[in-house]
Structure formats: C-alpha cells, structure tokens
Amino acid sequence: MTPALSLDNISCTFVSKDDRTQRYTAVADTTLHIAPGEFVSVVGPTGCGKSTLLNVAAGLLAPSAGSVKAFGEPLAGVNRRAGYMFQSEALMPWRSALQNVIAGLQFRGMDAREAGRLGQDWLARVGLQGFGDRYPHQLSGGMRKRVALAQTLILDPDIILMDEPFSSLDIQTRQLMENEVLDLWSAKKKAVLFITHDLDEAIAMSDRVVVLSAGPATHPIGEFGIDLARPRDVAEVRGDPRFVDLHRQIWGVLREEVLKGYQQQKARV
Ligand SMILES: Nc1ncnc2c1ncn2[C@@H]1O[C@H](COP(=O)(O)OP(=O)(O)OP(=O)(O)O)[C@@H](O)[C@H]1O
C-alpha cells in the first residue's frame, strides 16, 4: 500500500546561529513512513529535531537531503494533503470562533453560507455549540484548542500533523482533548504524525511510537507497535499492564537520549 506520508533518508543541516561558518546537522538520514489511517507518534529529547521533521512533512522546510512524498507524489512546496496543528496559538484574534473555524474554507473559495453551516457543525463536534460568536480572548485555553482542532479538521485533510498541540493545557483538559482527538480520528481514520515530549501521551494515542536519538544528527533509534485495544480512554489505558510493559520498554530506549539531550541543553546555557 502506498504510504500516506513517506520521509526517505531525510537530513536537515542548518547554518549555526552562533557561528555562521559552522553547520549544524539537526536530522540525519531519517526514514519514516506512515500508512493511510495510521496514528504515529514521534518522541525524543528536547531540541532533538522533532519539529524540524514535522516542518519537512508539512512542506514548510525543504530538507538538505532526502525525499518527501504524500500518497506517492513528491512534495513540491506546502503539503496540500496535510492539515497542521501546532503548539502555539494559531487563531486570529480579530475573528470569532466560527470565523476562525471556517477561515480555511473561505480561503478555498467556499460559499459563505455553506462554510457557515459546516463551521457550526464542527463547533458542535468539538463541544463548542453556542460559542461561535466568541472571540479567542473570551475562550479558555482548552476551548481555543478545540477551535484550532475544528479549524484543522474541517478541511478534511488526509494527513494530520500535530506538534505538541496540547502541551500548554492542564492534565485533565489535556486528557479530555486527547480522547476527543481519538474519537474524531477513529471516525475518519486519517494518517496522523503526532510529535510529543510525553511518552504516556504517545503510547495512549498511537498505533506506533518512533523514538528519536538526541541531536546532533538525530535519527530513529527504536520503533514500537502499540497493540492496546481501541477504543481507548487515554486516562484509563495507563493502568493496563500492557501499557506499563510498553512504557518500560520504550523508556529503556528513550532514557539515555533524554539524559544526553538534557546535558547538551545545560552545556549551551
Ligand atoms: N532554522 C534553524 N536554524 C538553525 N538551527 C535550527 C533551525 N531550526 C531548528 N534548528 C536547530 O535544530 C535542532 C532541532 O530543533 P527542533 O525544533 O526540531 O527540535 P525539537 O525536538 O522539536 O525541540 P523541542 O522538543 O524543544 O520542541 C535544535 O538544535 C535547533 O536549535
């Protein structure tokens, strides 16, 4: 089957910020394929290159070497088969929740009434019925994330790219949002590339967890199929003995890299 997303032998080298004559290889020779409908999380120590990989998949960053394909088609510019959700707030403060949700449809030229109808439908699906005329500053952090989620999913992308979308939320809100994402995902089964620091979140959500090494020259050092039954409740599944077992196995690979990453961050300060 043709993967929804193929990253083949990707390397990303940047000019060093501290010394323009030096180069820094953030990602080296990384291959990652995601099947249609597959939920894959990538975990790794801080600063290792997770966002760099996601930006490559999004077509926002051209790799220094390697190839990127969406459903077998080489990527030229922005990945139009993908929708994104980033860590930082991407809502437009001057637009209401509804206007934010339908922004992408309007950019695509959809008729205003049809876009409004779909927007209301999506607001209801993410639990924000009746909040369409609120502005982002009138919503809680969790509600703003729901708007951002609706804004991404309303475009019905075949690939969903998420970069630590819930890291700013408190643990309860975060778990609610994670369950909502799983519900929405299971209804449509799109390919997901989910970047996170949080191993519990990665295991609870995914079909597969890929572990990256500490930088420089980050690359995958482990890959684990997550055979926990679905549907899952992200809070309850943490008590499953298989979850505990998988956590122990993956942490056994990740731990050393986290320590290396931490030492490197300290050395930079
Ligand atoms: N445009 C750039 N120019 C120079 N260096 C960069 C650039 N983008 C990223 N880097 C470097 O590449 C490395 C990987 O960064 P990246 O943001 O991908 O890591 P990350 O794993 O997502 O980090 P975090 O876990 O903290 O979010 C870092 O050392 C970063 O400083």
TrEMBL record:
Keywords: ATP-binding, Cell membrane, Membrane, Nucleotide-binding, Transport. The keyword Cell inner membrane does not apply. The keyword Membrane applies. Pfam families: ABC_tran (PF00005). Residues 5-239 form the ABC transporter domain. It comes from the Bacteria. One of its GO terms (molecular function) is ATP hydrolysis activity. SMART domains: AAA. Belongs to the ABC transporter superfamily. This is ABC transporter ATP-binding protein. It comes from Massilia glaciei.
